[in-house]
Amino acid sequence: MKKIIATTMTCSMLAGASVALTGCSLFFWKKKEDASLVPFSTIPSSAYQSFVKNWDNKAQPVLCALIRSQADWNYWFQPATTMRSQRALTPSEEYFETRQLLLATRVIQAPDAAERSQIFSADKVTMRNGVLKLEYRFVKPVSGATYQVKDFLLVEIPKERYTTGPVEFIENGSKVCQIAR
Q1: Is 36 in contact with 62 (CB distance < 8 Å)?
Q2: What's the rounded Cα separation, in Å, for the pair 172 and 136?
């Protein structure tokens, strides 16, 4: 009987110590979250019935913009009024009270349906030393189309904390644009 009690007590203490150590390791050695990461979401280029305005894409292959208001949106985008759709032409003024948009756009060979979702993909948005950075990947389409289109990456971020300092656009690891604010 004494042996059973001793064995039970030993096992109980070992199990308790194991649980305590596991809990401590989760609590004390937990990897800290990266405070420089900015929450973001990507808005599909088909979300609004608008097109990016024209620019000299030979002199500037990537057009980058920070859109903080409906006036900014109207400067960079033109409505596609000939299209019949239920989609909005522009985000509402209320939308820009709490959010802002980062825009990276290129003139590219028209992608096929399979390539469409893989042209632009946002990796992360960070804020370090007063510099807001959008890092994204661009994959050039190989569809064989004989015409070109303007395609873009539109990334939404909160407005409240990210209002001053330069904005850098990093495409495939290389800086392609910088906007001073």
Answers
A1: no
A2: 6
Q: How far apart are CA 39 and CA 21, in angstroms?
A: 33
3-state secondary structure the chain: CHHHHHHHHHHHHHHHHHHHHHHHHHHHCCCCCCCCECCCEEECCCCCCEEECCCCCCCCCCEEEEECCHHHHHHHEEECCCCCCCCCCCCCCCHHHHEEEEEEEEEEECCCCCCHHHCEEEEEEEEECCEEEEEEEECCCCCCCCCEEEEEEEEEEECCCCCCCCEEEEECCEEEEEECC
Residue 119 to residues 137, 140, 161, Cα–Cα distance (Å): 8, 6, 29
**In this structure, what token pair is assigned to residue 98?**
């709490």
Instruction: Kindly report whether the global pTM for this prediction surpasses the value 0.90.
Output: no
How far is Cα 13 from Cα 5, in angstroms, rounded to an integer?
A: 12
pLDDT at 23 (0 to 100) = 54
Confidence band (pLDDT; 50, 70, 90) for 38? very high
